[in-house]
Design goal:
It contains 6 helices and 5 strands. By secondary structure, the protein is α+β, with helices and mostly antiparallel strands. The protein has a single domain, classed as 2-Layer Sandwich (Heat Shock Protein 90). Strands 1-2-3-5-4 form a 5-stranded antiparallel beta sheet. The longest helix is centred in the middle third of the chain and has 21 residues. The chain starts with 7 loop residues before the first helix and ends with a strand. 25% of the residues are buried.
Length: 193
């Protein structure tokens, strides 16, 4: 008896059916670079316009998408470029945009991060989850006025604040490790708009 083999087309169709069932409107997994993010941003912008999302929702979704992609470029532990390189980085991760059962848009991203980065992210995200929207907005304005970049940030330190400000619920996050001594953890972040 020959083993059953699912054709490539059947696998593709199964994936597309699942994406439709889960209301996924955009999904990418692979290596991220500034050029790739620029191309994806254009595709996301057009896809959001076609999805019928209102202008303010599209802007918040787009803003969060860009921040998630930038975080992958700056902090993913799976890199084709040297880890300390901070120009023309090429790092692995995934991003997904969809609609939940209640009709709200969500963004999910995932990428491996070094253990020390995971600790820093956990602290910042837990602090953001305890803040009110007004406190988040005040912190965002303060960071904009601040002329120095946080020591452990590769940007202006606004990414997580931007996502928290634009979200309709507190940011959700998780770190998954495969074993106790892992030098990296899979970082998953969800934003609901």
């Amino acid at each position: 008896m020959q083993p059953t083999h699912q054709s490539s087309y059947d696998q593709y169709r199964e994936f597309c059916d699942l994406a439709r069932q889960k209301n996924v409107i955009f999904y990418y997994v692979g290596y991220f670079s500034q050029n790739i993010v620029t191309a994806m941003a254009e595709a996301v912008r057009l896809r959001l316009e076609q999805s019928g999302a209102a202008g303010p929702i599209r802007r918040r979704l787009f803003s969060c998408f860009v921040e998630m992609a930038q975080n992958i470029i700056h902090y993913s532990a799976d890199a084709l470029t040297p880890p300390k390189q901070d120009d023309k980085e090429l790092r692995h991760g995934s991003v997904c945009i969809g609609v939940d059962e209640e009709g709200r848009y969500f963004l999910l991203c995932a990428n491996p991060v070094a253990a020390d980065v995971a600790g820093m992210l956990r602290e910042r995200l837990e602090a953001l989850r305890r803040m009110t929207l007004e406190e988040i907005k005040a912190s965002y304005r303060e960071q904009l006025r601040n002329e120095t970049t946080p020591e452990d940030s590769k940007g202006a330190g606004l990414g997580l604040l931007t996502m928290a400000r634009d979200a309709s619920e507190p940011l959700e996050f998780e770190f998954q490790t495969t074993n106790e001594e892992a030098a990296t953890a899979m970082f998953i972040l969800k934003t609901t708009i």
